[in-house]
């Protein structure tokens, strides 16, 4: 089982990374191969809405006109057995880097003859590390965009400072189940 993890946070020592790593440790214990990318470090432009009507090359050809890291990341997502989206809650929403990636991914995925993301199991983690508010709206937003991309969203886990210890245990166990194939269809 190959698990590709996309982090919308920058800090490898931060709360979002800790949540993702708890899940990945559990998965590795059960033999999964894991790889991750920190989106704020990747070159991912915003969608240019490159035709006058707001559509673009993606609608005609199923690929993006911008040559940056987004196509590589989408390719890795399409080759994974499961993709984990670990997102810090910003203003009750996805982080800017996660939005940029998924805004473009959904366009390309929706207009590919054969969407490489269709049916790939996805798991969301939303970490509200401030007051703890906004994680449910963030999860709703993540669900919307991931299902538009064609992923099979199997679960989402919210984390806040107050429940972090509990949730890290749950994430570790979730990683084990994910690697075992128990929670994917
Ligand atoms: C721009 C910004 C907006 C934030 N908005 C929220 C919020 O709506 N709710 C919340 O609980 N925390 C909020 N926070 C705190 C982040 O959720 C917290 O910094 C993040 O989960 C920690 O992730 P990290 O340690 O991986 O960087 C915000 C932080 C930033 C930088």
Could you characterize what this model shows?
- With about 180 residues, the protein is an alpha/beta fold.
- It has a single domain, classed as Rossmann fold (3-Layer(aba) Sandwich).
- It has helices at about 15-30, 55-60, 70-80, 95-110, 135-150, 165-180; strands at about 1-5, 35-40, 80-90, 120-130, 150-160.
- Strand 3 (about 80-90), helix 4 and strand 4 form a beta-alpha-beta unit.
- Flavin mononucleotide binds near residues 11, 17, 90 and 131.
Task: Please tag this protein with its features.
single chain, 185 residues, alpha/beta, Rossmann fold, five-stranded parallel beta sheet, 6 helices, 5 strands, globular, binds flavin mononucleotide
Q: From the 3D structure, determine the CATH topology.
A: Rossmann fold
* Classification by helices and strands: alpha/beta
Number of strands: 5
Helix content: 40-55%
- CATH class designation: Alpha Beta
Distance from first to last alpha carbon: 14 Å
**How confident is the prediction overall: mean pLDDT?**
97
Shape: globular
Q: Hey, roughly how much beta strand do the residues contain?
A: 15-25%
Bound molecules: flavin mononucleotide
Radius of gyration: 16 Å
Number of helices: 6
Contiguous low-pLDDT stretches (5 residues minimum) are: none
Number of domains: 1
What is the CATH homologous superfamily assignment? Answer: Flavodoxin domain
CATH architecture: 3-Layer(aba) Sandwich
């Amino acid at each position: 089982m190959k698990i590709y993890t996309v982090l919308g946070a920058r800090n490898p020592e931060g709360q979002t990374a800790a949540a993702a790593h708890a899940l990945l440790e559990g998965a590795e214990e059960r033999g999964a191969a894991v790889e991750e990318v920190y989106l704020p470090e990747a070159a991912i432009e915003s969608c240019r809405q490159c035709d006058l009507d707001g559509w673009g090359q993606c609608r005609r050809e199923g690929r993006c006109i911008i040559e940056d890291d987004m196509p590589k990341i989408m390719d890795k997502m399409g080759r994974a057995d499961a993709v984990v989206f670990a997102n810090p809650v910003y203003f009750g929403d996805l982080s800017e880097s996660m939005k940029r990636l998924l805004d473009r991914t959904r366009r390309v995925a929706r207009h590919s003859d054969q969407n490489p993301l269709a049916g790939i199991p996805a798991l969301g983690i939303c970490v509200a590390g401030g007051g703890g508010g906004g994680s449910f709206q963030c999860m709703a937003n993540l669900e919307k965009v991931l299902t538009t991309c064609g992923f099979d969203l199997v679960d989402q886990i919210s984390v806040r400072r107050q429940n972090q210890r509990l949730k890290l245990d749950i994430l570790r166990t979730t990683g084990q189940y994910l690697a075992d194939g128990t929670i994917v269809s």
